[in-house]
Fold this protein.
Amino acid sequence: MARELRDVAFVDGVRTPFGKAGGVYAHTRADDLVIRCIRELLRRNPQLPPERVDEVAIAATTQIGDQGLTIGRTAALLAGLPKSVPGYAIDRMCAGAMTAVTTVASGIAFGAYDVAIAGGVEHMGRHPMGEGVDPNPRILAEKLVDPSALVMGATAENLHDRIPGISKERADAYAYASQQKTAKAYAAGYLQPDLVSVATRDPEQGWGLATVDEAPRPDTSMGRLATLKTPFRPHGKVTAGNAAGLNDGATAAIIAAEDVARELGLPVGMRLVSYAFTGVEPEVMGFGPIPSTEKALRQAGLTINDIGLFELNEAFAVQVLAFLDHFGIADDDPRVNPWGGAIAVGHPLASSGVRLMTQLSRHFAQRPDVRYGLTAMCIGIGMGGTVIWENPAWEGNR
Ligand SMILES: CC(C)(COP(=O)(O)OP(=O)(O)OC[C@H]1O[C@@H](n2cnc3c(N)ncnc32)[C@H](O)[C@@H]1OP(=O)(O)O)[C@@H](O)C(=O)NCCC(=O)NCCS
């Protein structure tokens, strides 16, 4: 049977405000965060009959407790989708939600689905990084990886070692700019449309409503950043200020065949162009997005100069700077994370990929002059992921 690949659209995405681990969501279940996102997607897109959702793929890094039990399926049921809608769980650490999107998108292109929901959740307060892991002793005994590869902050220190040109001051300056850009984006009301408020309950303080990210520090200064401890190495360069923090949050997006989206009257926020995941040495996992971006560009027949907007996950400033240096992009290039990034808003691991995409789609709507945008992130155990998107509102299409 001859098959035709179908164009895949990013229809719409939402996220919860991101909390600090053990902060505003200390008494909120992880699955309730992602359920809230799915319900909000359905509320915002009433043209989508719930029974037309063919799959729900939800990522979490620690798939136990309230992040376990095949969370894509249970979240779909609890969000009120018909019982006929299946779901599954995905894990690729930080790139969980990114992988959820590329996986369902591939199913859509192949013709297995018309419409799917993809997202991720990480409650790092309830499930601290590394909870319950049991690495095979061979990994270290056979020196397959350096022991530092299992501590993400230590891998960031390793990156500083490999690229002496990225000083602590430069990493701090990048982090400071991220905080400033996020503050400006909030003030302009650019980030709020992505957010779905979450009702919270605290045994002492009672009911609350999370409406904004908890982690940003708009008042930080270069002077204060310079004084922070370096928890991953004595006299190191990675601090709480130039790294993403430990956060709780969830994201979800509607992904659909473009022709089905148009038939249903759903918006087409972005069109998938290409994606790639690649492996690098685990002890310098922050290099990951470099080869994944080269591969995704190659597949698309594009060069880095064709990319008008970048949404790069800021796991660590040094890792973004390594990417920018490799591609010859200035630290303050206005195409890069124009509304700030994870250093300010936070990085609830498996959820972040869809935050990058949702934000890029909002940029696209504002920027008809831009044709292509790129979302990329580094991934634990030495990987990178990149997804390239086309702007349907690009003025050249008119
Ligand atoms: C770096 C890390 C260990 C810091 O954790 P933490 O100590 O709980 O962080 P905190 O938020 O308490 O910050 C530590 C201190 O720095 C201060 N601080 C943090 N960010 C700051 C900023 N931007 N400006 C000024 N001060 C800041 C805090 O106020 C706190 O000060 P205090 O000790 O006087 O209270 C943690 O955030 C981390 O592990 N990040 C990386 C997460 C990760 O690996 N993700 C996966 C990526 S692949």
